[in-house]
Amino acid sequence: MQDLAAELKTQGYAIVRGFLSPAETSEIASEVDKMYREGLKHHATYRDGNLLFEVLDDPKARRRVVLQAHWTAWISPLMERMRRSEKYLAVREPFLGKDIKQITHQIHWKPPGAKYFLSLSSGCALQGRQDQGFRSPREHRDHRARDRPAD
Q1: Structure confidence at residue 138 (pLDDT)
Q2: Which helix (H) or strand (E) holds 70?
C-alpha cells in the first residue's frame, strides 16, 4: 500500500486510488444527492439529536443551499455501513491507530454558483479555498487577497 501518511504530510492530501469501485462510487453519489434533497426539505438549518442539515439562503446563488450534513448515518443505512467499513478503518489506521472513536460524520457541499461553501458550527458561512487548512496563515492570507473575485 502507498505511504498515505507521507503523501498527506508532503502534499497536504493523499489520493487512495482504487479505494472505491465504480459501483460503490455511484451508490455513494446517489445517497449523497438524496441527503442533499433531504436537507432542502427544511426551510432553515435543522437539527434532531446529532443529525444536522445546515441550510441557508445564498445571496449569489439566489436560492436555499445545503452546506453540510452531520450524522446522516442516523437516517441512511448506506452511510452507516460506510462509516464502519473495514476499508475505511484500514486507511485510517496509519494515522490514528486501531483503537479509534468516530466523533463526527459529515458531508460538505459547494453548491454551483453559491457564495458560501464552508461553514462553522457557529452559523458563520465563509468564503475560502479548498486547501486553506494546509497553508500557513501567511500563504492563506496572501492567496485570499490575490484570488478573491471582485464583487
Answers
A1: 55
A2: strand 63-70
- pTM, two decimal places: 0.72
- Contact by Cβ (8 Å): 115, 61: yes
pLDDT band of residue 148 (cuts 50, 70, 90) is very low
Residue 73: which of 29, 32, 119 has the closest Cα?
A: 32
> What pairs with residue 70 in β-bridges?
52, 106
Question: What cell was used for 48?
Answer: 434532531
CB 78 within 8 A of CB 35: no
Return the number of other C-beta atoms located less than 10 Å from residue 116's C-beta. 21
Is 27 domain-assigned?
A: yes
pLDDT tops 80 at residue 120: no
- Please state the separation of Cα 39 from the chain's center in Å: 15
Would the pLDDT of 80 be above 70?
yes
Residue 137 within any structural domain of the chain: no
135 found inside a domain = no
Residue 70 lies in a domain: yes
- φ and ψ of 23, to 5 deg: -65, -40
